[in-house]
Amino acid sequence: MRLIRVPAAALLLAVGACLLSFAHGQGSAALYNLTARYEGSSLASIFGVSDDFAINQAVVGAWQAQLAQRASTFLEVPLNQVVVRSFAIEQQAVGVRRRTRELSSLDLAVAAVSSGSSSGSSSRRQLLQSGAGTTVALLATFDVLDTQPGAHAAWDFTALATALGAASVAVNGVDRSAGVLVGFFASPPPSPRPGAAALRGQPPLAPQLFAYFDSMLAPGAPGRSREVVWYDDSDFLEERLDGTPLNLVWRNKTACFTRPTCGACSRAWGATTAPYVVTLYFRDPVQLATIAIRQVNAPAVKTVQLLPWPAVNISGAPAPRTGFLGPPLFNESADITPCPGTLTLAVPRRRSGLAEAVPVGGSQAELPKALRRSAVGGVRISLNAPPTGASQRTVVEWVRFTGRALYPLDASEYSM
Ligand SMILES: *[C@@H]1O[C@H](CO)[C@@H](O)[C@H](O)[C@H]1NC(C)=O
Ligand SMILES: *[C@@H]1O[C@H](CO)[C@@H](O)[C@H](O)[C@H]1NC(C)=O
Ligand SMILES: *[C@@H]1O[C@H](CO)[C@@H](O)[C@H](O)[C@H]1NC(C)=O
Ligand SMILES: *[C@@H]1O[C@H](CO)[C@@H](O)[C@H](O)[C@H]1NC(C)=O
């Protein structure tokens, strides 16, 4: 692919034209579903580390970030338009049938348990069983959103494989109904924006179908005096107290520790009283790809459940829906996340609804039926009761979400 360099001003013009054409309903975007295949004698050789036991979440995270960065550079799309979704490993021993297995983030968390652990977990054994005589393939599935398919020549996926250091890259599907993300391009607003609250119940400013977000904190949680406080409520800081759920919504807070440490932290949710449950809320309906839960003391996640949208009273939105959206995403008697550690849960693609088209005629008030099935309004996390002794109290520093908001009332919320 040729590199075409244009002055920044021309780029801005092109972006403006793109938004304009979208606003007039003529823009098109394409969401490519790709799989990069990496092959090696062991997983370690693919990840570039000395042996399989050196594979931990940091290694996988860095490798994943590099994949996204290389794809972004090669395809000339912004980094946040490349979303690595899932990994699978395929092992092929001589005379044995090929076996493909989803490699969930949970497996990676298991792998991150330091060596010498007596867990003997089957996930860990399966993950690490690559050895002599086998060939291992790692399949990384990722999406690339192309907002200007007309602006460049067709992508050369063979050359992309080379750029990614992969054996091959396969295109699994192209969704041409993907919406355009104003948020990806939005320059800082020229004047203070009215605030999402003011937009509730009003017609959306632009016909935006959805907006992706990556590693975003939930926008709302129960406050001191009311059932939900949003991150941009003017009294947010008065509603927040040390150790309460609103610390999981507080966007400005400083990290609990500068080094990987376990211990108490006031700017986190500390599970002090039964039933050890926290609920986080979304203002717009969202579809989730991943939920990452950072625990900095006594990891003890027991269940993670999705709530339908709306999960709480939201002014201007339909009445709250009750119950859960499907079975628990996570339901384990013991949390094997190391401390400090991040438990990352991937929502299976079908269940997430992320591949579904977002119809132009829909809105939050009239959510298309197919989307209602996967539209999340909240996430409820419950913990196992801590053993006696306050030092064993579970401390959740943050919960971050990747996914997309449907018919966002203010898409710029997601570009922050
Ligand atoms: C994306 O690729 C995966 C893996 O090949 C496949 O299961 C899924 O159906 C694809 N989705 C779309 C929208 O093409
Ligand atoms: C976040 O920081 C900004 C700028 O420092 C400040 O204006 C705002 O009040 C802070 N918000 C919260 C919730 O701390
Ligand atoms: C919504 O508000 C009503 C009236 O204040 C209240 O009875 C109800 O419990 C609230 N619903 C939820 C889900 O919080
Ligand atoms: C969680 O798992 C336990 C044990 O397998 C099961 O009894 C329970 O019903 C599950 N919880 C939910 C909400 O599905």
UniProtKB/TrEMBL annotation:
Keywords: Signal. The keyword Signal applies. Residues 1-25 form the signal peptide. PROSITE patterns: PROKAR_LIPOPROTEIN. This is Uncharacterized protein. It comes from Chlamydomonas reinhardtii (Chlamydomonas smithii).
